[in-house]
Amino acid sequence: MKDNQNFFLRNIWYYALPSDRLKPGKMIARTFLGEPVLLCRTREGKVFAVRDICPHRGIPLSCGRFDGQEVECCYHGWRFDHGGRCTVIPSLVEGQDIDLNRYNVESYEVRETQGNIWIYMPEPGKSQGSPSDMEIPVIPGFGDRPPQLVEVMRFPCFIDHAVLGLMDPAHSPYVHRVWWWRSGQLHDEIKQFDPSPYGFTMRKHQLPANTGSAYKFIGGGTPETEISFRIPGVRIENTTTAKHQVCNLTAITPISETECEVNFAFYWTVPWAGFAKPLIRLFTRAFLDQDRRVVEKQQIGLKYDPVLRLIKDSDVQAQWYYQLKREYARSLAENRPFANPVKSQLLHWRA
Ligand code: FES
Ligand SMILES: [Fe+2]
């Protein structure tokens, strides 16, 4: 299989939405992996998701109303509850006893934790596949606290290219070349990587002087960081100083074959960082936008379906990503446990 052969991983949790974007009693229509999904939050605060297509005549349910409990289709008023069960067909008269369960709309498993809503995307057409034993990624050390800052940005590419950009250690000096980010000469980097659940982890290490000095400022001691990645496109970077912890979650979700969404959530324990939030937001957006613009240009070349030449060691993480993806899909198809293809290894590159 050619590496850049596009396919979506199924039967896996994807990041759907930052919690604060979905208020009680509201609904939001989204597209994930090319499927129309309606996310709703009941008045009591529980989130649910159903396919955004009325099983009667196909109109999006999001064109109708949500009363905080049930969704009502705008065409003939059929109603659906949080499990997608059809509860009312208004045109039925007495004696027309039909089993409303035959008219349910497909529903999706959703989970809400640490200020994020996750959705389990089963095989298409399989209503609510039961979630595999894969857990939802957890930001360590923050309990159920929501992030202090969230940014969502659309990238005009297939998910793989956004993911590769996310873990690419060699692009920073070229793509993120700005005065406030690690300027200067290329230098050698050597990092130890280990397999971790459904992915790999860059072992905890001290931050280089240029980045580390900024962290020293916020917490003293020697700042240390650990970065983990797991399919389908989740990266968690956890940095600790003597007093504080700063963690970011980046989770990429495909919208379609040509678009994906990069969700970036920032968690920190630094009390005064709240004041700097507008500035942090500005930097985060600028940073993400640099990655977005480069994949936008990449699309010009990818239209010709080139074979991609991934090299050692700077592209080994990209190779692992493709291996992890293929292994996950195969393990499901063959109905056997997932076997992580990543082996502990030192990687060495210049950046
Ligand atoms: S199309 Fe939805 S109720 Fe008829
Ligand atoms: Fe980047």
From TrEMBL:
GO terms for molecular function: 2 iron, 2 sulfur cluster binding; metal ion binding; monooxygenase activity; oxidoreductase activity, acting on paired donors, with incorporation or reduction of molecular oxygen. Gene3D superfamilies: Naphthalene 1,2-dioxygenase Alpha Subunit, Chain A, domain 1, Rieske [2Fe-2S] iron-sulphur domain. Residues 14-119 form the Rieske domain. The keyword Cell membrane does not apply. InterPro entries: Cholesterol_7-desaturase, Rieske_2Fe-2S, Rieske_2Fe-2S_sf, VanA_C_cat. It holds the Pfam family VanA_C. Keywords: 2Fe-2S, Iron, Iron-sulfur, Metal-binding, Oxidoreductase. This is Rieske [2Fe-2S] domain-containing protein. It comes from Tolypothrix tenuis PCC 7101. The lineage of its organism: Bacteria, Bacillati, Cyanobacteriota, Cyanophyceae, Nostocales.
